[in-house]
Amino acid sequence: MSLLKDFTRGIWKENPVLVLLLGTCPTLALTTSATNGFGMGMATTFVLVGSNLVISLIAGIVPKKIRIPVYIVVIATFVTVIDLLMKAYAPPALYAALGIFIPLIVVNCIVLGRAEAFASKNGPIHSILDGLGMGLGFTLTLTMLGIIREMLSTGSVFEVKVITAWTTDFLLPSAAPGAFIIVGTILALKNYFNRRAAIKAGKLYVPPEGLDCRHCRICSLPEHDEEKREK
């Protein structure tokens, strides 16, 4: 059961994008099409699984003071491998679209975060499953966003025209503001259904830390206090 939990955690309960809000930069920049989202997700999954495995094996012999530089070197090695593999075997259009975001996997918070928070504290099997689950959750989210944005922009899915009468592209979903709107809508729906499920189970639903007004405190700023006194 623990192995299954390690694998499924990243798909929904601790989804890197929809719950932990990590990897936002490639999420917003590369999901203009489902193909780009899927390609970026698979590349990140490869790095996650490989780096988690190696880091879980060497964690016990790496001095704590230099563990982060060592982890980054391990991650960079796998990023170099996937970059060369994609350059050799991936469709040229996909490799060109991903561009600089492949090397930037080195500093992706998802990869380094799992290395520090999980792989360095667990065995190889658990670490592989954790990396695979997190990578799968990341891939599914990016592909879903890519499908939505591509469909709303051009009426296509995976570059296949679904609505043949769609001749004029809608630019908003393919631009950064459209990506923010779509991601925000998905987060709102996810929290809504989580809240409904908690109510049905007779439990109190607590939104993820950082996503509710308890952590905003904007209403406690001095200018807001003055506005309240004026009223």
Secondary structure topology:
Elements lengths: L1 H7 L15 H7 L3 H25 L8 H23 L2 H7 L10 H9 L6 H31 L1 E2 L2 E2 L9 H4 L1 H25 L21 H9 L1
Antiparallel strand pairs: 1-2
Describe this structure in words.
This protein has 231 residues and is an all-alpha fold. It is 64% helix and 2% strand. It has one domain (2-189). The chain has helices spanning 2-8, 24-30, 34-58, 67-89, 92-98, 109-117, 124-154, 171-174, 176-200, 222-230; strands at residues 156-157, 160-161. It has a two-stranded antiparallel sheet with strand order 1-2. A hairpin with a 2-residue loop joins β1 (156-157) and β2. α3 packs across α4. The longest helix is centred in the middle third of the chain and has 31 residues, at 124-154. The termini are far apart.
List keywords for this structure.
single chain, 231 residues, mainly alpha, 64% helix, globular
Strand order of the largest sheet: 1-2
Major sheet summary line: 2 strands, antiparallel
Order of helix and strand elements from N to C terminus: HHHHHHHEEHHH
Helix content, binned percent? 55-70%
Overall mean pLDDT stands at: 87
Cα distance spanning the termini: 57 Å
What class, by secondary structure content? mainly alpha
Count of DSSP strands: 2
